[in-house]
Design goal:
By secondary structure, the chain is α+β, with helices and mostly antiparallel strands. The protein contains 8 helices and 8 strands; from the N terminus they run αβββββββααααβααα. The chain has 4 domains: 57 residues; 40 residues, no CATH class; 101 residues, Band 7 domain (Tetrahydropterin Synthase, Chain A, 2-Layer Sandwich), CATH 3.30.479.30; 39 residues. Helices cover 60% and strands 22% of the residues. The relative contact order is 0.06.
Length: 297
């Protein structure tokens, strides 16, 4: 009897432990399932939200090496972004890209009146670059068009202060003057004007003909002056040579013999008659005697 009771107690304990273990496994599995379900639910909500934010809210902007980005937050300037990738929210942020490479502005033909009242047409090319991107965006609406318009007005004003001869002869100096004035005026925009070249200067056709005639007359004047100076120098040399021959006894005879030698070497039909100088002096003396005799009568 007693052994039976012990057996019943043992089976009861085992059954109780089995039931407790079973219940514990059920509760644990339910808890895990609940946690997993909650995690799956949370991830199923977070992932689409992140994709929505990345696609429709956030943006990635690439800034190249030759560019700079002017950054605005809620319409206020906050700084300049360097080359690379930049993540921003277009809802309340904005990036304005500025190219800092050297650019060329072709200034069209401009009508101007020179200081001596001559109408001319002139065009140029301007080379500039952006040195301060914040000023180029904040201080001027369209800096490229502003540089072009300012170059046109500055060029007309400077040409109006020059005479036509100075404009044609000193184009490099005038271009440098226009460049310096343009560079000074664009400093407040963050623009650096590196060079300005005058491409062409067009003057009226009748004035071209007049300038051609003037140049031709000037060349003729120089030719006449050069020829006259040459004749003068030749005459001076001949006078000095004659004086030297007159001072030196026998020099004239030597010069005569040299001239005869030069003529004899010429293969031509020239006939040379040699008359002694003594005979010429005798003729001269006879002429003087006859003149005195005539005066006495």
């Amino acid at each position: 009897m007693r052994a039976r009771r012990e057996t019943v107690r043992t089976h009861t304990r085992r059954l109780s432990r089995a039931i407790h273990k079973f219940l514990h496994e059920i509760v644990f599995s339910c808890t895990i399932n609940v946690v997993i379900d909650k995690s799956i639910y949370m991830f199923s909500f977070i992932i689409p939200f992140a994709i929505f934010c990345f696609v429709f809210v956030l943006r990635i902007k690439q800034i190249d090496q030759y560019e700079r980005g002017v950054f605005f937050v809620r319409g206020k300037f906050t700084g300049v972004k360097n080359p690379g990738w930049t993540i921003y929210c277009p809802i309340f942020q904005k990036i304005h890209i500025v190219d800092i490479r050297t650019r060329a502005v072709d200034v069209p033909y401009q009508e101007a009146i020179t200081k001596d009242n001559i109408p001319v047409r002139i065009n140029a090319v301007v080379y500039y670059s952006v040195t301060d991107v914040s000023k180029a965006v904040l201080e001027v609406l369209d800096y490229h068009n502003a540089v072009s318009q300012l170059a046109q007005t500055t060029m007309r004003n400077t040409i109006g202060e020059q005479a036509l001869d100075d404009l044609l002869q000193n184009r490099a100096n005038i271009a440098n003057e226009i460049k310096n004035e343009l560079d000074t005026k664009t400093d407040k925009w963050g623009i650096d004007v590196s060079a300005l070249e005058l491409k062409d200067v067009v003057i009226p056709e009748d004035l071209k003909r007049t300038i051609s005639k003037e140049a031709e007359a000037e060349r003729e004047r120089r030719a006449v002056i050069i020829k006259a100076e040459g004749d003068k120098m030749a005459a001076q040399n001949l006078s000095e040579a004659a004086a030297t021959l007159a001072r030196t006894p026998g020099a004239l005879h030597l010069r005569t013999l040299q001239a005869i030698n030069d003529l004899s070497s010429d293969q031509s039909n020239t006939t040379i008659w040699m008359i002694p100088t003594d005979a010429l002096e005798a003729v001269k003396g006879f002429a003087d005697v006859m003149k005195k005799h005539t005066e006495k009568k």
